[in-house]
Amino acid sequence: MKAWLSRLQNDLDFVPSSPKELAAYELSHALPDIPCRIETDPAMDEGYRISHSPDGTYLITGGTTGVLYGAYALICRVLCGESLPDEFRSSPQYALRMINCWDNADGSVERGYSGRSLFFEGGHLQYDPFRMRELGRLLASVGLNVLCINNVNVHFPAQLLLEDYLGEAAALADLLRPFGVRLMFSVDFSQPMRHGIPTADPLDPAVQAWWKETAARVWKAIPDLAGFLVKADSEGRPGPFTYGRNHADGANMLAEAVRPFGGSIIWRCFVYNCRQDWRDTKTDRPKAAWEHYAFLDGQFADNVILQVKHGPFDFQVREPLSPLLLGMKKTHMAMELQLAQEYTGHQIDIYTMIPMWRELFEELPESNIMSLAAVSNLGRDENYTGHPLAAVNLFTYGLLAWDPQTDAKEAVTRWARLTYAFSPADESSLVSLLLSSRRTYEKYTAPLGIGWMITPHDHYGPNPSGYEYDLWGTYHKANRDAVGIDRTAAGTGYLLQYPDSLQQKYGDPVTCPDLYILFFHRLPYTFRMKDGRTLIQRIYDDHFDGFSETQAMAETIRSLPFPEEDRKVILDRMDRQLCNAKEWCDIINTFFFRLSGFRDEHGRTIYD
Ligand code: GCU
């Protein structure tokens, strides 16, 4: 199953020249019996209106790409059997709805679980034009409009900016343009040093001139390039700190270079000390982003967008919202999500993300961010996402980037219906399974906000002390009496980065939601949770529950009538998930039992 596309129509055997032409083609193939007309109103930009006239004709009016989004909206609703009002209008909440691919020029994909890169091989851009059109449809059909094709860790720094490769990239941009998808490139902050300039200091005139000349060359080849994505001073990447400059100096210099062409600088805020001494109790990694950026609020150029991971650590199964997303009111901000299941099951374990995203949006006022980005889960596998069910994350991300109020159940149901067209009973089983999958994964891996008990580097499977004596700032400090980190004012002080209301909510273990309790507090195993159970008993119960929920999930998965091409992959991965859940449950429970000496009240098997 090619994600949800199979039901839109058959293979895309046509090379569209504009969104309008593509919209007409899609409508005539997917809804051959429904008369449709398309009218462009450039003022509507990406928005559209669908109106139903008494003679049964649908009129789609929209901006240049709005007509395409309108066509897909109509097709999806009709194929899903949803009724449409006589007039329906929609426009996206966020301007840039981005996919960030972490694809390397050698064809590998950092944190990729769906095969090799769709774009690169052997140091070159190398792609199948047919698959690029399919990719364009995958993105456009859910309203995504920016695709950054290369890794934020720019291992081949020269590549996309050099004349040789720019031509190939421009051809790819041409292919994706009718789908309303603009390219973006990750760039290396020290790039000028590869071109004979002895420094990358953002205040150096030669550096500034190099970036200006480079931007002119790049935008000449790709006039609608969305911008440059930058990972600076992070995990070994070069950045302004080398020259005693701050990140506003660095980002604004690049912003000046791309401004004449309407480009943006997407500047990531994933900056922390990744060489921490575990004995150091003063440094607390979640505090880092705020310390580097909050004081610069208001100093960034208007074409700089700060891209902040949704939580203060790094895409753990549960983290509170990054305080930076709440605090920087005078800066354009983007929230970064991760579709690639780096810490969340490698696209082997089923993990549907939209319930988590909905929680984030409940804490985050919509106006605080202007764009949304997600690390891609796509690769060269036939089904694009490795696990066929992982496609739900790309689909629902698109819907949410268009409208952050999107209801999780409605979005997942729509994906299930478009992809599989099951009977109502089977569809309902699949949808409930997907919606509860994140909570199940959380229970058998790292419940109560603890995080980081995962195998180092690879990030699949349990290793409770794997990150404990390492240099990444990721500690739970479990000993025989207690576990967790005190991040209140009495502890590391991280909590003070939040607005008062959240400080109140999280600051007291009695009011702090259990789901975050060990993120904010260090508690003895005998601590009484809100439901009266002790902390240690809750740890045991959650892990046993997570494993038994996975067993129930496997029963459901085996009973569903997946098409043959998906069934084999899904069953194989389900077996691997079961083994993984069992390992997590037994190893984490054993780890805590051996430390604490407390027995499980229900006498279940934990190993001495
Ligand atoms: C994580 C991930 C890295 C990635 C980094 C980033 O640390 O493990 O592979 O490069 O995030 O977001 O830049």
Output the keywords:
single chain; 608 residues; alpha/beta; Chitobiase, domain 2; TIM Barrel; Alpha-d-glucuronidase, C-terminal Domain; 3 domains; 8-stranded parallel β-barrel; 4-stranded mixed sheet; 16 strands; 11% strand; globular; binds alpha-D-glucopyranuronic acid
Explain how this protein is built.
Helices cover 36% and strands 11% of the residues. It has 608 residues and is α/β, with parallel strands linked by helices. It folds into three domains: 19-90, Chitobiase, domain 2, CATH 3.30.379.10; 96-419, Glycosidases (TIM Barrel, Alpha-Beta Barrel); 421-485 and 522-608, Alpha-Beta Complex (Alpha-d-glucuronidase, C-terminal Domain), CATH 3.90.1330.10. It is globular and about 70 Å long. Bound molecules: alpha-D-glucopyranuronic acid. Alpha-D-glucopyranuronic acid is lined by residues 110-111, 152-153, 231, 235, 270, 314, 342.
Low-confidence stretches: none
Count of spatially separate domains:
3
Sum up the overall morphology in one term. globular
According to CATH, the homologous superfamily of the largest domain is Glycosidases
Structural class: alpha/beta
**What top-tier CATH class of the largest domain fits best?**
Alpha Beta
Number of DSSP-assigned strands: 16
Name the bound molecules. alpha-D-glucopyranuronic acid
- Count of discrete alpha- or pi-helical segments spanning 4 or more residues: 16
Which percent band covers the strand fraction?
Answer: 5-15%
What does the largest sheet look like?
8 strands, parallel, barrel
> In what order do the strands lie side by side in the largest sheet?
5-8-9-10-11-12-13-14
Helix content: 25-40%
The CATH architecture name of the largest domain reads Alpha-Beta Barrel
How many angstroms does the end-to-end distance come to? 46 Å
